[in-house]
Specification:
488 residues, alpha+beta, seven-stranded mixed beta sheet, two-stranded antiparallel ribbon, 11 strands, 9% strand, elongated, binds adenosine-5'-triphosphate, binds magnesium ion
Length: 488
Amino acid sequence: MIKKIPKQVRLVLKKIEGGGFEAYIVGGCVRDLIMDRIPKDWDITTSAKPEEVQKIFPDSFYENEFGTVGVKVEKFAPNGNPEREYDVIEVTTFRIESKYSDKRRPDEIKFAKNLQEDLSRRDFAMNAVALRVHDSDFEIIDPYHGRKDIADKMIRTVGDSHERFDEDALRMMRAIRFHAELGFSIEEKTFEAIKKYHGHMKHISQERIRDELAKIILSDNPAEGIDMLHEAGLLDHIIPELEKGVGVAQNRHHIYTIYKHSILALKYCPSKKLDVRLASLLHDVAKPQTKRGEGQLSTFYNHDHVGARVARKILERLRFSNEIIGKVSLLVDNHMFYYNPEEVGDASVRRLIKKVGLENMKDLINVRIADRLGSGTPKAKPYKLRHLEYMIDKLSHDAVSVKMLKINGSDLMEELGLKPGPKIGAILDVLLSEVIEDASKNDREYLLRRAKELDKKDLEKLREMAKEKIEEKKEEDDKEIKEKHWVK
Ligand code: ATP
Ligand code: MG
């Protein structure tokens, strides 16, 4: 085990000890070492106060308001931040968390007398094991029998579960996150306490919830994690919109309820990306509210577009980045795309690429695979989807944006003598709509001739032409989906 501790970590421990203080490796990294996993990050707990740690490591910095000091070391972590030229080891002074009167965060940070006290404030026994490293030997400090829990694959709070969840409700979500990440069971009494205190989740900040949720989604068992949040009553405080699908039946194309289908889509999502997994979980989130009729013939018209807005609202509330929000809502918005090689031509595929972006097509197809498998369809990638991938590849160089046209605004001014102004943009838009219909028209000579003709029309007319083309085609695409009930 000792050999798995990087030399950078040993050096930091040695330097702190050299200053006359105690220093231990603690938390998730000890748990990972015992389990023979590679730790994501390394945490050290010490008797040195933050300013004393800073004195030992002059270019260290304060990581947060809890007295954690980040010590910069030579890069070593395989999954460290690629944008930094150094890695960071977090060094936290022994501390005890005092009262949590708002159930969110401790009122004040109090330093603990010793390691024992520091370990007593940690969430789970498996996270309350400390390791003291000597030159070629080590000593384990394990007052709560965390090693036994790790061996038994068991998540159990340090001390009374009720008190510990009452202090900080996020720990309930952390228990489920560790279940999803490590495959450990949650001890019965601990789970009972979660069910009892689920309402305390409302005190927790959306940012803390988001970080744990993202870890659940990215774990090896995300669907189990989300379903356990539901079982425990926590999901209603995190994504209540998903709870609306519980017990709601679909129509003759589906064997599962909306909720069950959403969970299964996440389970079978072939991508490891956070945005694609979130889109798989949320793709049908608006089905409960768009459901019309009952039984085998009920419909969910527009649930994709309404769902994109609902997904946006959920992710904004959870303070996800704009990048994640935009991507997930784009994928949800387009998850009903229709594709059948016998009826859908090149132009239709180009329109889809224009709408979704070539760079997002693989992710959209992965959401479709998740959707299909989550419906109980045996084959992940039928002939139709494979054909679509082939078409996307084949058409990937065709113009789907004004930038990809063989002429640009300067050409129109220089070759045709047009004056700068909105008309140039309008002409390019019309040209693009025509090139999307027929890729062979993306030819410099042809486009210049056609632009000359278009220049005779006024701005209003040109704008109408570009819009008409898009809307007429959009209606056509949508109509296909609706009429065919889009059998997956
Ligand atoms: P990971 O492998 O995901 O980093 P971790 O166990 O290291 O898992 P962190 O969130 O990095 O989890 O926290 C580090 C340690 O701090 C935990 O192992 C635990 O001892 C303690 N800890 C973190 N959050 C809490 C909390 N809300 N309440 C009590 N102790 C906590
Ligand atoms: Mg950690």
